[in-house]
Structures are given as structure tokens and as C-alpha cells.
Write a structure and sequence with these properties.
7-stranded antiparallel β-sheet, 0% helix, 3-stranded antiparallel β-sheet
Amino acid sequence: VSSTTAANAYTRYFSNNTSANDTVNAGTTDTFNGSGNRYSGNAVRIKASADIVANSYADADGNCSAPFVPVAFQKTRFGLNVMNEWVAFASTNATVITVTQPGGATSTITLTKTGTNINTPYKAYRTTDYPAGTLFESSDAFQMWYEPKNDTNASNDDETVMFGWD
């Protein structure tokens, strides 16, 4: 977590209903640990008193990082461009995502959280090998990350934030 504001207070809300307060100073970086690895642990939402930026190194294999995504940038549709090793989802909404694979097979993924705090994010994680062209859609906005299965048209083991559309 970084900021250009002095003494920027922020709170981290985890999907297991825990939270923590901290402060980051201008020009410095504050780090914290979540739980689990490869995005299978708890989702985290950060709310700050002033603007911040944050990156995640959650997959623990030393490759790449993925930025935190502002809630305003969540979308209702995402599509895979390559086969994935895993997919992860987070949202401020209790939502069900419809998965449509090439050829028409469908399934659903339900985002969950523990507790009733309105700031606690919902999350889901799957290790299903979804092929390129798989669509993920919901009536509520969410965010999605994935890790490519191999180096074919992608970079294996590099967790990647996805860009969706409404």
C-alpha cells in the first residue's frame, strides 16, 4: 500500500470478517499479509482516508503482481483469453457468477463471505481449467484475477488482473 498523503489512515477488511487499521506515510510502502496463497485465501478490501495504490503478491511464486482494483472499476462480465490455472473473484456484492464455456456448457460460482460487516468483501476461487473463450457474467459487479496455465499466448504463473465490461 502506498500513498502521496502524509499519515493516510486505512482499514483492511477481509472476507473472513476480520479487519485491521494501519497508516501509510507519503513516499513509503506499507505491507501486510493475508491468508492462503495463490489467491485462495481471503479477499481483502482497503478503505483509506485519502487516495492509495496497492499491489498484491499473493500467489507467492515470485512471479509478477496484480494491482488492487477500485470498487468503481468492478464490471459484470469477464472473458478468458487463455486457459487458466486458477481464477479468483471478489466483490462488494453477494453475487452468483454464470460461467459459459465455449460450446455452451454453463455452471455457476457463488461468492461468499463470513459475517455481516458491509465493508467485508465476498470472494470465490476455483482451480478448474477453464479454456480460452470462457465467459463469466453476473447481474452485480465483481472483479476477477487469473493465472495462465502455460506459456502459450500468455505468461505461465503470472497472476493477472482481468479487464471486464458491462
